[in-house]
Design brief:
The protein is α+β, with helices and mostly antiparallel strands. It has helices spanning 13-25, 38-44, 46-57, 93-106, 115-126, 139-154, 165-170, 183-189, 218-235, 241-244, 246-253, 255-265, 295-311, 327-339, 356-363, 380-394, 400-403, 406-419, and strands at residues 28-29, 60-63, 68-71, 112-114, 158-163, 177-181, 239-240, 268-271, 275-279, 320-323, 374-379, 423-426, 429-432, 441-448, 459-466. Helix 4 (93-106) crosses helix 6 and helix 14 packs antiparallel against helix 15.
């Protein structure tokens, strides 16, 4: 029987699970973020949360008077949870750099700071970084900087006392903004578990790469593997057996995994022949909703249906079967791209972790189950053709800018399907993964919205999904 939340009464279990989902969905909770009731909810269950999150997932919950900060154990490099701009777009490298430099600059200021003064402080640091800089005379730089400041403002690290950041971004000569600084929240936002100057590779930030050292003893290692298996299912749309590695297969298939995750989160664990998924029908825990609204999500869903239909073909029209990159190979490839931008200046070599090459070699030795799983392959040109068909049939419901840029729409749709573990993007195309079969029967219709006066050209897009029970 599961020991998760064993002291929580059945009458209060739903409230406790709501607090679990809240802190997992928002690793930083403050008096105003994500809403005014969130911090009180987490603080009520803080003791039980600390115990269960550490025992089940290896996550550490740190609470103060005004913050609750969840420190996750990282097993991989995940690009699916980016910081977002005011327009809802993922941060680019410039915005991330400004965010980090803003946090550093805030540590050198008092209780308040003017936006122009903060920009000057960040600019003084940015100019020392090759290829960065911050020129407040350039609107693009001001917008990127204000996106970083707004991200901090939404979480309560900064509170607008007077003026307008948007007005400053439009004309810094005529407008200004004044902010109060909350040092407790600033500290909670940037709470690294490693000293960055000691790292020679981004993989040293990962717990499963041995960055914290393996626990001694067979029982401790089994506990660590059980936590990794639970994290794999919790943090991903699906945990595929073929991608898990031999050391996690037993844990993924164990009944205790489903018992612990269901008791902890209140969600349902679904087990199929290819893997395990934690099903969130409420959308309260998931950071990405699929199916979802918007042009990219709609195009991705229809594209998924066409890929799934192509996978069912037999004979000479059947798609070629190719192996998918293993988790270790994907980790190594992502790490190389990130480490290519790692500055050597400031690295304390005598305290640095293993060099990049040795880390990559170790990651390639992650235990994989013998044998090679192959998946149907569709080419990029085939995908472009299917998207052209989709746009021609349903384009009235798509955003005009994406409808006019099919390559960008295809790239974003494939990124979404890849993030949902429905496909694996590879050179020249994509591999159809088992979860894709859920969207085998998708039908869609375009509804035209009418208003008083001349007919509107805006279209509403409605999709019906028929989920196949046997992916």
């Amino acid at each position: 029987m599961s020991r998760v939340a064993e002291t929580v009464s059945p009458l209060e279990l739903a409230d406790y699970q709501k607090a679990v989902r809240l802190v997992l969905r928002h690793p930083l909770v403050t008096p105003g973020y994500p809403d005014k009731a969130a911090l009180a909810t987490v603080r009520r269950w803080a003791g039980q949360l600390r115990t269960d999150l550490m025992e089940v997932l290896g996550y550490r919950l740190v609470t103060t008077a005004d913050t609750a900060r969840l420190q996750r154990a990282q097993d991989g490099l995940d690009a699916t949870r980016p910081a977002l701009t005011r327009a809802g777009r993922p941060f680019d490298r410039r915005r991330y750099a400004y965010l980090v430099l803003t946090l550093a600059a805030l540590g050198r200021h008092g209780a308040q700071v003017a936006l122009g003064e903060l920009a000057d402080a960040v600019a003084a640091d940015a100019v020392r970084i090759d290829g960065l800089g911050l020129d407040t005379a350039h609107k693009a730089d001001r917008d990127a900087f204000v996106d970083a400041v707004t991200w901090l403002t939404e979480r309560g690290a900064l509170t607008l006392a007077d003026g307008s950041a948007t007005a400053w971004a439009g004309d810094p000569e005529r407008a200004e903004a004044l902010y109060d600084i909350d040092r407790e929240i600033v500290t909670a936002v940037h709470h690294p578990t490693r000293v960055l100057q000691h790292l020679s590779s981004v993989t040293a930030l990962l717990d499963s790469a041995g960055a914290l050292g393996m626990s001694a003893g067979r029982a401790a290692q089994r506990r660590d593997q059980a936590r990794r298996a639970r994290r794999l299912v919790l943090e991903n749309p699906v945990g595929y057996y073929a991608d898990a590695g031999a050391e996690l297969l037993g844990q993924l298939r164990a009944p205790a995994l489903a018992e612990d995750l269901e008791r902890l989160t209140g969600l349902t664990v679904e087990r199929r022949g290819e893997g395990v998924a934690l099903v969130d029908t409420s959308g309260k825990l998931s950071d990405i909703r699929f199916p979802g609204g918007g042009t990219v999500a709609q195009a991705a869903l229809l594209l998924a249906a066409r890929i799934s239909a192509a996978v069912q073909r037999a004979g000479r029209h059947a798609p070629e079967l190719l192996p998918a990159p293993t988790a270790a190979e994907r980790l190594a490839a992502r790490a190389r791209r990130i480490d290519a931008a790692l500055p050597s200046r400031g690295l304390i070599t005598e305290l640095a972790g293993p060099d990049a090459e040795s880390v990559y070699e170790e990651s390639g030795d992650v235990g994989q189950e013998p044998g090679e799983t192959r998946y149907p392959f569709v080419t990029y040109s085939w995908l472009r053709g299917r998207l052209k068909e989709i746009t021609g049939e349903y384009g009235a419901g798509f955003a005009a800018d994406l409808r006019g840029d099919p390559d960008r729409l295809l790239d974003q749709a494939l990124d979404l399907l890849n993030a949902m573990s429905l496909i694996a993007r590879v050179d020249g195309g994509a591999l159809a993964l088992p979860l894709l079969a859920r969207y085998r029967g998708v039908t869609a219709r375009v509804k035209t919205r009418t208003t008083a006066g001349p007919p509107s050209q805006t279209a509403l897009f409605a999709v019906d999904t028929a989920k196949d029970p046997t992916p």
